[in-house]
Amino acid sequence: MCATTLIALSGCTGELSTIDPAGPYARSVATMWWIMLGGSVLLAALVFVILALAFRRGDAERRPASHKFWIGGLGLAMSGVVLLALLAYALTVGAGTLPTPDARAVEVQVTARQYAWDVVHPGGRRTENELHIPAGRPADLVITATDVIHSLWIPRLAGKMDAIPGHTNRLRVIADAPGTYRGECAEYCGVGHKDHNFVVIAHDAAGWAAFTRGE
Amino acid sequence: MIVLLRLTAGLIGWAAAFCLIYALHGLGCAGGWDARPFAGGSLHRWVLIAGWAVSLAATTAIALVLMRYRATPLDRAAAALGWVGVAATAITFVPILVIPACA
Amino acid sequence: MSALKLHTALTAIWRNDPGWRGHFRSVNHSDLGKRFILASFVFFAIGGVLAMLIRAQLATPRSAFVGPEVYNQIFTMHGSIMMFLFAIPMLEGLAIYLLPKILGSRDLVYPRLTALGWWCYLFGGTVIILAMLAGVAPDAGWFLYPPLSGRAYTPGINSDVWLLGITFVEISAMCAAIEITVTILKFRAPGMRLDRMPIFAWYMLATAGMMVFGFPPLILGSILLEVERAFGWPFYAPELGGSPLLWQHLFWLFGHPEVYIIFLPAAGAVSTILPVMARTRLLGYGAIVAAIMALAFLSFGLWVHHMFTTGIPHMALGFFSAASALVAVPTAVQVFAWLGTLWQGRPQMRLPMLYLIGFFIVFVIGGLTGVMLAMVPFDAQAHDTAFVTAHLHYVLVGGFVFPMLAAAYYWLPHITGRERVMRIGEAAFWLIFIGFNLTFFMMHLTGLLGMPRRIDTYPEGMGWTWLNLLSSVGGFLQAFGFALVVIDVALQVWLGRNHRRNPWGATTLEWAMPIPSPDYNFASLPSVDSRDPLGDDPDLGVKLARGDGYLADASRNQRETIAVDMTSGKPEHVAILPGNSWWPIVTAAIIGGFFLSMLAGLYVIAPIFIVGTAWAGWRWAWTNGTRGDVGPLPIGDGTTLPTSFEVARTTGWWGSVFAIAASATLFAALLFGYAFLWTVAPNWPPPRLIAPSLLPPLIAVAGGAVAFVGSRSGRAPLMLGGQIAIVAALLLLLMGAPDPKSHAYAATSAALASYAIFHAALAALIAAFVMARARAGYHSASRINEGRIARLWSDHGAGAGAFVAILLVLPGWLA
Asked: Which of A126, C92, C283, C478 is placed for a possible disulfide with C435 were both Cys, Cβ 3.0 to 4.6 Å?
């Protein structure tokens, strides 16, 4: 009931919303979120119901609780099974987002600094605070920073990846459809952190060809 | 003192396994072992599997030794924790089998 | 002797000096525990005001309440104060106040060290707050990531305030950790076997053990960052072979165990209070002990879950994700053990129980979101957003603050000896509970909608506006609630009616004494043969006050308690404890001088304070011991026991064991750093290696061997000579090594050498000390424990020295 009220208050949609996915990776994570939320609600309800019942059972003498049931059954077995199942699911989802070799992928160099994003696209075209990718194809972002740690995040497309000076990280994003998406810096980087944003423009095939040609 | 060592032995086994396997993983990625083919997989994965097998054997041995002392409640807790060490070693390193090594 | 005569005589021995002198010289654990608790509440209030400023800033979009420079100090200080100046000292204070009583002892093992810890905490915390009032508070986030916190991007002293101030306060934490460990192992009532200890003691034993091994990586990381900032030695700077990731590893290697260090004592309070409220026994004592051990160890294998988005390979992330999921199992075991306890009991909704209900609800929600965050793909979206802020507050407020409020109301009658005045506590609970959920539940959604952490304002139209406003309203409700708690406590302290003993009907030993407690806790010490001593004999308190137990004897005019065998609880020796002293506050002031001179950039005079600390340590240690044999003392049941003067393995020896364990952990973390930078950091290999010489390692190994022979044969001059040789060898190595400022390799090598030099010098000082003590008549055939302690430090210095000398020339030889 709380959750639905909240959602009614603000909805799931938003330019930076992880629960309004626009790409397969964000979608698999959003699905996982709803499943985990459902499971959590059930487990929390179990605990709260037991808590409430423990108080309402009157003042008569009780039998000693069964060690095997409470500790072995609920504490160990139930929690163990739930956790292992969730872990297996999560490892599978995570493995599906890895930038394994893919002929259709394009590589884009992104360098973060206080407080802008410098992008070099395939073919050499450079932009600032604008990331151009082809829609429907994997875009491997090769990410680093020149000064302090930043983090590149396009919530509607994929999880985030830190931009660390001296290190290079790789993040694969895929946008389902052409359009404009928002990105932000997700690691506190100083006084300009809140304005350290960028846009992502996903082109259709023709648009991508035109962009890389320099038009 | 000894009973405290027995209480922690299983978990220390898991912790040692963690140090070993995490170190092997890091050294292997830095050394490019994941690009070296070996027996149908990569050298890196076989090294990790070997480390894991050694760890499972060691933690199992610890658990079996601990099972010989079961007189007091603390002895029994120590034996249980021995098996916790084995289970934790088994579960923690499952990613060796299902995740690419250095991606 | 009548109870009154015994009380008067013991009070004369155990009380503080009169007036202000007494305040500064007190080593009374009840006083010091209360000071820790009170001070931590004051810091909580300061942190709470900072939280209100945060919520005032974030209540509306495009806020101009404060600018980013000030806001960055506000949120950094909020986190730092809450974690380091509130949570840890609060649990230390509870342990310091409660442990001797609940274990059936008269004091902690090192009374003056407890006082040293108090003064270090007070001085360090004050420096940090003063810096905030002066506008130079740390502003790089409470985990202070470099390079942002480094000299290039934080040129002012803001980061130094954190690094030096927090490290000063952590001296207090390390002292408490070692003392609590040894106290639980050695100072218990005769007959209190390990499995008859109150469950709270198991929780504190695990917590203290985690502190011994968990704090050193933070201390190391802080030292390295401060040295990088002050002297330019690169550890974290990638241009010169360092890596910002090294800081993250070192910090979170501490940071994850830290949150379990905070949770476990609170869980201990729950395990203690819940069965009393439910009028039954705790379900599953053995399973809970096992769960505590599992949690303590597993929590050291989780730290990378704070770094899931740093680009570490997925397989490694998988290990940490699996371990993070596994750690939820022992937590679940405890939760269901508690629920089972309630189920088999007849719970009453008294005020502590109300706060425990709050704990259940809030902590379980926090635990569930924690499991979500343990899953890597979800964390890749939620990391560094308001979702994480929501999770951490649910587990910390739910898992620590609510149990501590329950504990406060549960033990307040013990501390004050009075009853509650009005039913304000219930109203406070509802304000806090409702306000808390209103503030933080919203943040789960704001995070999922993309709101990052640590932004000083946000734009309209993101779907965050209403949620933030509600969060801020909740903040005000919480503030009112906490204010009511303060008022409630103040009323009880000043206006409450005097209370009868044991208002809750509890069965643990702290209630077997008059309340408020006398300075000596127990007029005579109990013999224990179950987990519920007061349940077996409800009149135990009266009997002990009459002198029916052990050591009902004030005739020797010294502070005495019984030390037992760790496992069986059989009485082992009579510990003679020190009385009031100036040394704790004097030493804390000298240590403070070191930190202040470093903070002021007066690096030339800082070493003077190091020498001063060594001087104070020498004079302090000199007050121990006796100049003649004492012989065994009668303990009151017809038997005699040796005193701590004439036992080989004193509590001081055990303290050295754990101190060396902590130092070895710091060394291991440094070795990890060396290996990490070599394999992962950019710009390696270094331009120049340490030359492959033979002489320094040979001298070091020879010195180590001489010291080892000296330690086995008990000859201090050999230990002294061996350590001096090691220092000389390492200095020789350093003189030929590349400049530490040139590359992380040189800096780390110099750091390793510095560690070994420090320990060799310390071992040499201790060896010289025992030589002087022997000449002055403090040693004899039966008074041998100081020599045993010196051996421990010498062995460690010898081992570290030889190892480092060989390690440092190895790359040159292998190249």
From this structure: C478
- Please tell me which residue of chain A has the smallest CA distance to B96: A91
> Residue A7: which pLDDT band, with cuts at 50, 70 and 90?
low
For residue C524, being part of any structural domain is answered with no
Nearest CA in chain C to B27: C679
3-state secondary structure of C234: coil
A92 phi, psi to nearest 5 deg: -65, -45
Over residues B58-76, mean pLDDT:
94
Residue C15 is predicted with a pLDDT of: 95
Task: State residue C423's pLDDT score.
Answer: 85
Band (pLDDT 50/70/90 cuts) for residue A1 is very low
B81:C567 CB<8 A: no
Which helix (H) or strand (E) segment holds residue A131: the answer is strand A130-134
By the 8 A CB rule, do C525 and C104 touch? yes
In the three-class reduction of DSSP (H, G, I as helix; E, B as strand; rest coil), residue C738 is classed as coil
| Structural domain includes residue B33 | yes
pLDDT, residue B38, reads: 85
Is residue B103, in this structure, part of any structural domain at all? no
- What span, in angstroms and rounded, lies between the C-alpha atoms of C260 and B73? 25
Number of domains into which chain C is organized: 2
Strand partners, C666: none
Give residue C216's identity as a one-letter amino acid code.
P
Pair C212, C177: CB distance under 8 Å? yes
Nearest to B27 among C289, C313, C679 (CB): C679
CATH number of C342's domain: 1.20.210.10
Q: Considering C445, C467, C495, which residue would you say is the last residue of a domain?
A: C495
Q: Provide the 10 A C-beta neighbour count for residue A104.
A: 9
- Boundaries of domain holding C753: 685-814
Pairwise CA distance, residues C140 & C220, whole Å: 19
Q: How far apart are CA B26 and CA C433, in angstroms?
A: 45
| Residue B46 to residue B41: CA distance in whole angstroms | 7
Within a domain: residue B38? yes
Last residue of a domain, one of C460, C495, C530: C495
Q: How many domains does chain B have?
A: 1
Q: ipTM score of the complex?
A: 0.96
Q: Which of A84, A91, A98 sits opposite B103 (nearest CB)?
A: A98
SS3 readout for C781-804? CCCCHHHHHHHHHHHHHHHHHHHH
Q: Which residue has the tokens 């004999």?
A: C537
pLDDT of residue C500: 75
In C736-781, which ranges are continuous DSSP H helix? Answer: 744-775
Span C15-63, pLDDT tens digits: 999 999 999 999 999 999 999 999 999 999 999 999 999 999 999 999 8
Closest-approach residue (CA) in chain B for C297:
B11
**Cβ atoms of residues C107 and C32 within 8 Å:** no
pTM: 0.96
Q: What is the dihedral of CA B90, B93, B97, B100, to 10 degrees?
A: 170
Res C366 pLDDT > 60: yes
Option in A87, A92, A98 nearest B100 (CB) = A98
How many CB atoms are closer than 10 A to CB C543? 16
The phi-psi region of residue A124 (left if phi > 0; otherwise alpha if psi is between -120 and 50; otherwise beta) is left
C213 is a domain residue? yes
The per-residue pLDDT for A2 is 46
